[in-house]
UniProtKB/TrEMBL annotation:
Heme binds at C328. Keywords: Heme, Iron, Membrane, Metal-binding, Monooxygenase, Oxidoreductase, Transmembrane, Transmembrane helix. InterPro entries: Cyt_P450 (IPR001128), Cyt_P450_CS (IPR017972), Cyt_P450_E_grp-I (IPR002401), Cyt_P450_sf (IPR036396), Cytochrome_P450_fung (IPR050364). CDD domains: CYP64-like. GO terms for cellular component: membrane. Belongs to the cytochrome P450 family. Its cofactor is heme. This is Cytochrome P450. PROSITE patterns: CYTOCHROME_P450. It comes from Phanerochaete carnosa (strain HHB-10118-sp). Signal peptide: none annotated. It is a single-pass membrane protein.
Length: 397
């Protein structure tokens, strides 16, 4: 009803599904995503500066980072200020995801409701869908057409959209169907990629706040590689196994999508003696898998060491990005974004609890919210530079 039925995440198997998956799989293959690293790095540095200037608004800065990086990668647009129209597009999209996801779910249970006219008394969901649909149309057209104009003028930056248009041109020209597939795919990059990335980073920070030993150990590892003299680069990743384990453990401790994304059975089936009718909503219970004490020892404990030798508990398979034919196509883009932000954050800052009147730490109880992903509501904490040298590293950027 909001005009998203043709987005990959909502498409059943079929020709459109294959066309869109192909676009993502080509453009966001592991090797292709290397081209986007400069944007990820420069936006991370911008984020460090913002946190240094105003650490209390850390959550807002993280949201802004996620949006800016995805807009730059998708359309080559550099977000310049807080009132940038591309920020409005991303925020409006998130609002629709949350509002439509919660309020319009009623239509899934009573499909006939969608045929009520929007003026019908009490039909607030019809009006919500109508308003959202015109926003969705604009959020698809405006940035896409901008890239096409820039390409025609010869001044388009490298981006997912410009690279794909160029490829279509080289392979025999642009037809309206291909352009439409690409436009829909591009708009989905930030619908599916901005909030999930920001949520994952926020969950890592929550985990670090409540697990100071793990935080210190990750910082010591970073110091041993960087010598406190420079900020992390993507090439440092293989030298930082503990940091890797911290990120893995965070995704196990609180998966960003604790119930995956809902799927629907395309045919009736029998699974372990249970009859599943066609059209049943099926959820992959990721959080149950990550908290399975037959797989993970003492699963509620946050312990990155479980993924390192000698413990070497099984790595996460699918808990973070899903499985099979519907596995997240943005994973090779999202994973380096999360890594570079956490590595850079820990190289420069520490996150510690606030104190009560008696000087005792106040450990926050996280309130988990849901949108497209699960994330903690803003929690009180202090984020401060680790040293004067760390401040200098950011000041020099
Ligand atoms: C840390 C960030 C991210 C997380 C945790 C995440 C997680 C997921 C998960 C769990 C799924 C469902 C897979 C399944 O159904 O089995 C999914 C699907 C999807 N993701 Fe991501 N994702 C992230 C970032 C991104 C980014 C950056 C993009 C941008 C391209 C993206 C695009 C998509 C799309 C289009 C789907 C639907 C795929 C389909 O239905 O075939 N995601 N993601």
């Amino acid at each position: 009803m909001v005009g998203w039925a043709d987005m990959l995440g909502f498409l059943p198997y079929g020709e459109q599904f294959h066309r869109q998956r192909k676009v993502f799989q080509q453009a966001l293959a592991k090797q292709s995503c290397v081209a986007f690293r400069p944007s990820q790095l420069s936006q991370t540095h911008m984020l460090l500066k913002k946190i240094l200037q105003d650490s209390e608004c850390y959550e807002e800065h993280l949201r802004r980072f996620s949006t800016a990086v995805i807009m730059e990668i998708t359309y080559g647009h550099k977000v310049a200020s807080d009132d940038d129209p591309y920020i409005d597009i991303a925020e409006g999209t998130n609002k629709i995801i949350v509002e439509a996801g919660h309020s319009l779910a009623i239509i899934d249970f009573f499909p006939w409701l969608r045929y009520l006219p929007s003026w019908f008394p009490g039909n607030w969901f019809g009006r919500l869908a109508k308003d959202s649909a015109s926003f969705v149309e604009n959020m698809r057209d405006m940035p896409f057409e901008q890239v096409r104009r820039q390409m025609a003028a010869g001044n388009a930056s490298l981006s997912f959209t410009s690279m794909q248009i160029e490829e279509l041109e080289q392979n025999g020209g642009l037809n309206p169907e291909d352009l439409q597939t690409l436009k829909v795919a591009a708009s989905q990059m930030y619908a599916a990629g901005a909030e999930t990335t920001w949520s994952t980073i926020l969950i890592v920070i929550a985990a670090l706040l409540t697990n100071p030993k793990a935080q210190r150990k990750a910082q010591n590892e970073l110091d041993s590689v960087l010598g406190g003299k420079r900020l992390p680069e993507f090439e440092d990743r293989s030298s930082l196994p503990y940091l890797e384990a911290v990120i893995q453990e965070t995704m196990r401790w609180h998966p960003t999508a604790p119930l995956g994304f809902p799927h629907s059975s395309t045919a009736e089936d029998i699974y372990r003696g249970m009859y599943i009718p066609k059209g049943t909503t099926v959820l992959a219970n990721s959080i149950a898998m990550s908290m399975d004490d037959k797989v993970y020892n003492n699963p509620t404990e946050f312990r990155p060491e479980r993924f390192l030798s000698p413990e070497s508990e099984p790595p996460l398979v699918g808990i973070d990005f899903g499985w099979g034919r519907r596995i997240c196509p943005g994973r090779h883009l999202a994973d380096p974004s999360v890594w570079i932000v956490i590595a850079s954050f820990l190289a420069v800052f520490e996150v510690v609890p606030i104190k009560d009147d008696k000087g005792q730490d106040i450990i926050p109880e996280f309130k988990w919210l849901s949108g497209i992903s699960s994330h903690p509501a803003p929690f009180p904490c202090v984020i401060r530079p680790r040293s004067g040298d760390a401040v200098q590293l950011v000041a020099r950027l």
